[in-house]
Amino acid sequence: MFMKMPFLNRRKKQGSYKLSNDNLPEHVAIIMDGNGRWAKKRGLPRVAGHREGMMTIKKIVRHAAKFNIKVLTLYAFSTENWKRPKTEVEYLMKLPAEFLDTYLPELMENNIQVRTIGQLSDLPEHTRQAVELAIEKTVQNDGMILNFALNYGGRAEILQAVQKLAADVKNEQMKVEDINEEAFSSYLYTYPLKDPDLLIRTSGEIRISNYLLWQLAYTEFWFTDVLWPDFDEEQFEKALYDFQNRKRRFGGV
Ligand code: IPE
Ligand code: IPE
Ligand code: MG
Question: Which CATH homologous superfamily contains domain 27-153+195-243?
């Protein structure tokens, strides 16, 4: 499908930047943070922030696809988020169905493939069904991969990889001497996706909160104080622009 590139020259209020078509990240991971604070600032319940955050997801997915980003991995619910009040967790668990009900036609139109990472089996039945349906419906698409981290934790991911690997060693599917980085990666939820090139975190927190612990080894980090519901296309482009102007060395010179 032919996609027009958006205008790449953009004047910013403070100075200007020019995005080039080369050297864009292939895999962008985002920690979508700050929904609760966004709502609080407006005297609204936290869940209102999650609702607004869902609108931002739609906006950023559209925009990322225009830049031919290959994979967009969004942190939607962590293994630690179960600690939140029951009503908030219940609300969050309803959002995937709502998001997909209203957005699936557009995902199809834009040739986007929905995938997930995380322990889906521990999600409520209705949440899992909605997500599985979206994966199934978009499986033939070959455009951008929209990857939701749902009930995802980096440590849990590494542990389940170790368990599967140990089982494979035990039943002689794998030899201890063949365990290397590549082989280990193939046991992670993210296999066969390449590691993220760029990680964006909104809301001013400077931490990774158990996200993609193995995969972020050489990822470029980009932080903003903007709360996720306020994040927009222009800030996304700014992150891409900053990425393009970084020198990645991967330990070399
Ligand atoms: C991110 O926003 C969304 C999820 C973690 C599900 P938060 O809900 O963490 O918002 P803050 O950090 O409390 O503002
Ligand atoms: C990380 O945000 C998880 C998601 C965005 C889904 P949190 O708001 O849960 O992270 P902490 O608790 O501030 O580290
Ligand atoms: Mg938060």
Answer: Decaprenyl diphosphate synthase-like (3.40.1180.10)
Kindly state the tokens that stand for 123.
């999600």
> Which residues 6+ apart lie within 8 Å of 230 measured at CB?
34, 38, 56
Angle between helices 46-66 and 233-244 (to 10 degrees): 50
Residue pLDDT, tens place only, 139-196: 999 999 999 999 999 999 999 999 999 999 999 999 999 999 999 999 999 999 999 9
Residue 45, preceding peptide bond in cis (omega within 30° of 0): no
In this structure, the residue with its CA closest to atom 10 of ligand 2 is 209
Q: What atom of ligand 1 comes closest to residue 84's alpha carbon?
A: 8
pTM over 0.90: yes
Ligand 2, residues at Cβ distance < 6 Å: 31-33, 75-78, 81, 205, 207, 209
Atom of ligand 2 nearest to the CA of 207: 14
